Amino acid sequence: MAFENLTEKISRIFKKIRGQARLTESNMDEMLKEIRVALLEADVNYKVVKEFINNVKEKSLGQDVLTKLNPGQMITKIVHDELEDLLGGGENEIKYQNNRPTVILLVGLQGSGKTTSAGKLAYLMKNKLHKKVLIAAGDVYRPAAVDQLQQIAKSIDVPVFSKGTNVSPVLIAKEAKEMAFNDHYDVLIIDTAGRIAIDEPLMKELDEIKKEVNPDEILLLVDAMSGQDAVNVAKSFNDLLSLTGIIMSKLDGDARGGAALSIRHMTGVPIKFSGVGEKVSDLDVFHADRMADRILGMGDVMTLVEKVQDEIDEKEAKKAANKMMSGKFDLNDLLSQMKQTKKLGSLSGILAALGGPKITPEQEAAAEREMKNVETIINSMTPEERSNPDILKYSRKIRIANGSGKQVSDVNRVLKKYEQMKEMSKRMESYKKSGKLPPGLGGFGGMGGFR
Amino acid sequence: MGLISFLKDKFSKKKTEDIDAYSEGMSKSRQNFSNKLNSLSKKYHKVNQDYFEELEEILIESDVGVKLTLKIIDEVLEESKKKHITDAEEINEILINHMFSGYMEKGETATDVRFVNNGPTVLLVVGVNGVGKTTTIAKLANRYLKQGKSVLLVAGDTFRAGATEQLQIWADRLGINIVKGDYNSDPSSVAYDGMIKAKKDNVDLVIVDVAGRLQTKQYLMDELSKMKRVIGKVIPEAPHETFLIIDATTGQNGVVQAKAFAEVTSLTGVVITKMDGTSKGGIILAIRDELGVPVRFIGLGEKMEDLKEFDLDSYIYGLCVEK
User: Fold this and answer.
1) Among A6, A50, A229, A360, which would you mutate to test the B interface (most chain B Cβ atoms within 10 Å of its Cβ)?
2) Is A134 helix (H, G, I), strand (E, B) or coil?
């Protein structure tokens, strides 16, 4: 995007106010202004932004800055936590009925992704939750909508209840529900025609369907690309139908999806799922923390710091650190370091979170392939070889290469990297003697050697 | 002079039929925009900072975007200071004027499809998923059929389930030919077949539907650029026109979309759909500001004839004035 990213903007402002121990009106103002622009650029509704910024200001004023954070990081943390709080919460899971079919009605604007999401939901429920699912083809207006649903349903082997396009959707819903009850389905998903929100006849029809089938869930599809009006649309649907949840669609694009925040804030309806791709398996349960990062448009150092603390097994890390410091670093340690790094997520994700350079998908794939190679090769060694790499001579290398499906040259490359790491570990020893701990020990030491 | 009479005066020379269509189609969009603008000038006899803040709110809530909004507000502020204007209604007029001139100064303002002198004119229609591409194609086909042109449709969306069927239904209703391929087949080969047929039948206009794609999916964008090359090989200099379809509900990602598509296909225009909803479609102003691409058509309703040539005056009039 052409915009300077929020992380850059905020760190630029930080520089001016470094060393201030308390958040005050004056040191906060400029940062809040940037955060406001970031939220507006993410399509968060104007009024919601205003309220949100005021809340953050109130919460932050006079707060002591945590020792390890600068004021900018501090305020970002407050903003992030506040966002996450607002986005999450509420009953965000589907409640399944035990003794009868759970009826789910999908509603939304034209082109928001109802039909595709009907397929994705069915796939999720069938394959992950082992439910018996029926989909009702209730969009009788858009040309070929029924065909589209049937093609999707066929690909995931889920039956479709359809009566063509000359029957009223209310009747289709009613009969589909009867079929779901009679044939003991666990879930009935009803697809409906798209609307331009305040199109009264269609809204009335939705209301009739609701009264007829009395659904357990009414889910509104919201396009992640929606602008300022999304909140009004959601309000109209909610006023009429009392929604039970939101599905954010098209989150695989680069839209920041601020509508999620506006809608959650203005209607209180919980966000339950997010559509993250074109494949039928691309539907995720909603993660408030990820959405908060996305709306802010920044890699969040704080989340990563927390993540590092959670994921890195303290003991393991200590063991590896001690070994490294003692200069007795072997291939087992190398392997364990790589596993720790992998737990943190994708390389690009880690780099983004650290505000590091952007890498292309190709670079990322190459780096990840390389890490995978190293792992495979070490895994093909005997325990003895791993703890004492010096015994690796040509015949052993051939065996390892064959065992891992690689070339001897690949094995040599791993050993060369290991030697480099060992060299580093020797230098650590001298650090130890001087009584200082080198920075970046633990998960990232290993990664540096492999990029 | 009040804002409404100012606008009415400004547009008195326009064809009333078109203005009526805009005014009716945009009645829902207008509810917030003009009511707010009017109540604003009633609330403030003399403008102050709060007034400009509320003006900012109105523009941002119309999806004009922060950047362009701040730019317009700055211009209005400057002009009102220079001319010592503090009357709210006069300031609203300055605002409307700046919205006009900002758009007009950004480049050409063609609307109708520009036909080539010899052989078929090729129009490529692109956009993200769900913006109403197929429906818009049908409306465009209908428009040029009525003008006595021969039209051929090419179903280049072989990816989305039901897409080809949907276009087929429209082709049947309009009584025109359609070239299509199998589900999941290579869209470039469908485009190739389409161009060959267009040349053979010597049609006036070929409209190529392209699968909806998020601009972040590199392989899909590559596919689009291949399609474009294939088309150009059969009919030199084609596609002559490439329209990006944008949904009126689209927020600031619209600018990102337009940039991404422009890189691959050199956009010649934007078509905004679903303007009959409550959205204001301010994103077209932001796109124009960033890329200079003109808006060519505007979708004001579901009926075939509800696709109108874009007219900036009528758009702003539609946003502001009751019929």
Assistant:
1) A229
2) strand
Residue-wise pLDDT tens digits, A363-374: 777 777 778 888
Secondary-structure class of domain A301-449 per CATH: mainly alpha
Return the number of other C-beta atoms located less than 10 Å from residue B184's C-beta: 9
Q: What angle do CA A77, A82, A83 make, to 5 degrees?
A: 100
In chain B, CATH 1.20.120.140 covers 3-104
**Contact residues on chain A for B132, CB-CB shorter than 8 A:** 110-111
CATH code for the part of the protein at B3-104: 1.20.120.140
Q: Are residues B161 and A109, on separate chains, in Cβ contact within 8 Å?
A: no
pLDDT for B242-273, tens place per residue? Answer: 999 999 999 999 998 899 889 888 899 999 99
CB contacts of B60 in chain A (<8 Å) are 40, 46, 228
Alpha helices, H only, A255-311: 259-267, 288-296, 301-311
Chain-chain contact of A112 with B61 (C-beta, under 8 angstroms): no
Helix segments in A128-199, DSSP class H:
145-156, 169-182
Does domain A6-87 bear CATH number 1.20.120.140? yes
Quickly state the pLDDT bin for A4 (edges 50, 70, 90).
Answer: very low
Domain B121-311 has CATH 3.40.50.300: yes
User: Could you read off the pLDDT of A223-261 as tens digits, one per residue?
Assistant: 999 999 899 999 999 999 999 999 999 888 888 888 988
Superfamily of domain A102-287: P-loop containing nucleotide triphosphate hydrolases (3.40.50.300)
